[in-house]
């Protein structure tokens, strides 16, 4: 049965083998295997369906006695490297149903796991795992402070735990009795990156696929091997994660320069588009990476992702899957180079044309929307102008009427004043006549 196209990328498989990788620092060569795992989904399948095949497969690949050893080790790397996030938030990220974690493990064929050890699948309960974290949230030191022994030399890696008690379960018991070191996962796990693939629909025609890079950490002991650069190149690789429009991360303020070296931008206007994607950590800055059309993944080998579970279901042995990642010969590369480059060039031109059509459509829709707004505002302005003119006309009419009433009022006042004056004059005249009569009577009386 041939695998589907979706299953050939990281987000299409719950457990996958990415490739082998070598890292160099001075004269030290570090050989590793790179895997991807969907912890939350696999954990639910193991717990709810008691899937022993997948459980044993994880034990063989990651050289652990218990499935939860891997989960706690990944959480430990993040908590030690990114102490401001907090253990609870880290567990919520890596155990999310949609989250995928890329793990880089050192090659170590000498480790043998006990197949007859029961998996402590009940450890991820509030009473044990998250309850233990809450008990330590008020402590200043990291909850996983003793999980890794990142010493400068190799002596610290050869120490073995003499504790023989195998009945301890859960995160608290692992850390208290150092059982997770006994599973050897802390010796082999050197770096991790957790990411999700989400879709955004800001406006019609603006739907995008975004890679949410939630967490990325490299153990202090292995820094300087360019492992962080390798993880970024993996995540930017379309052959591994499929097509995407942007990669969004919330970077620690001390890591901004690291991300800027790989074309991540902290521009606030550009990142405002992705403000709803991912979480915002304390003392962190939102950054995003916009991929070019014509890009190279920056890796020495092309990615041929292998979904392990699907391959094994097709009766392919695990050893064959892990050993099939070999260096291509020069003739093979030259024979396939022209065809691959041609197909990629056509695909990238198609993407350019698609984005141009989308831009054209968006610009036309934007013009229509702006025109609609313009005519709405125009009608609103005309209506307000008409109302203003009507009110001005009414005010002028009222002014004219007021002037007329004022004049009439003045005339009435003048008439009233005139009448009062006449009345007073008449009264004075009568008084004069009466006084004259009295004088004449007085004179007559004297003469008599």
UniProtKB/TrEMBL annotation:
Name recorded for this polypeptide: N-acetyltransferase domain-containing protein
Classification from the root reads: Eukaryota, Metazoa, Spiralia, Gnathifera, Rotifera
UniProt keyword annotations, A-Z: Coiled coil
Q: Which SUPFAM superfamilies match?
A: Acyl-CoA N-acyltransferases (Nat)
Please name the InterPro entries in this protein's record: Acyl_CoA_acyltransferase
> Which ranges form a coiled coil?
395-422
């Amino acid at each position: 049965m041939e695998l589907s196209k979706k299953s050939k990328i990281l987000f299409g498989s719950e457990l996958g083998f990415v490739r082998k990788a070598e890292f160099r620092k001075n004269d030290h060569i570090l050989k590793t295997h790179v895997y991807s795992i969907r912890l939350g989904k696999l954990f639910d399948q193991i717990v709810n369906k008691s899937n022993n095949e997948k459980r044993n497969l994880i034990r063989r690949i990651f050289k652990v006695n218990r499935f939860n050893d891997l989960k706690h080790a990944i959480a430990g790397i993040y908590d030690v490297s990114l102490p401001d996030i907090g253990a609870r938030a880290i567990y919520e990220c890596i155990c999310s149903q949609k989250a995928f974690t890329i793990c880089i493990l050192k090659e170590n064929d000498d480790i043998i796991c006990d197949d007859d050890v029961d998996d402590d699948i009940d450890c991820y309960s509030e009473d044990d795992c998250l309850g233990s974290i809450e008990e330590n949230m008020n402590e200043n030191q990291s909850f996983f402070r003793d999980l890794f022994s990142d010493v400068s030399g190799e002596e610290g890696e050869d120490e073995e735990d003499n504790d023989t008690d195998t009945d301890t379960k859960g995160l608290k018991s692992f850390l208290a009795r150092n059982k997770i070191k006994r599973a050897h996962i802390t010796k082999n796990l050197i770096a991790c990156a957790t990411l999700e693939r989400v879709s955004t629909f800001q406006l019609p025609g603006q739907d995008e696929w975004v890679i949410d890079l939630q967490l990325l950490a490299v153990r202090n002991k292995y820094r300087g091997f360019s492992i962080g650069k390798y993880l970024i190149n993996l995540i930017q690789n379309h052959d591994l994660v499929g097509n995407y429009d942007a990669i969004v991360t919330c970077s620690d303020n001390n890591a901004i320069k690291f991300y800027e070296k790989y074309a991540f931008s902290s521009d606030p206007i550009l990142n405002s588009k992705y403000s709803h994607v991912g979480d915002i950590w304390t003392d962190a800055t939102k950054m995003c990476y916009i991929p070019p059309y014509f890009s190279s993944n920056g890796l020495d080998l092309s990615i041929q992702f292998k979904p392990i579970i699907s391959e094994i279901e097709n009766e392919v042995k695990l050893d064959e899957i892990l050993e099939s990642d070999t260096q291509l010969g020069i003739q093979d590369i030259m024979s396939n180079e022209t065809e691959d480059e041609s197909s990629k060039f056509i695909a990238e031109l198609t993407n350019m044309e698609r984005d141009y059509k989308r831009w054209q459509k968006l610009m036309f829709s934007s013009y229509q929307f702006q025109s609609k707004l313009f005519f709405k505002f125009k009608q609103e302005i005309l209506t307000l102008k008409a109302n203003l003119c009507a009110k001005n006309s009414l005010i002028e009419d009222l002014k004219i009427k007021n002037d007329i009433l004022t004049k009439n009022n003045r005339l009435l006042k003048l008439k009233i004043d005139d009448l009062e004056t006449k009345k007073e004059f008449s009264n004075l005249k009568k008084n004069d006549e009466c006084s004259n009569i009295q004088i004449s009577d007085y004179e007559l009386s004297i003469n008599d």
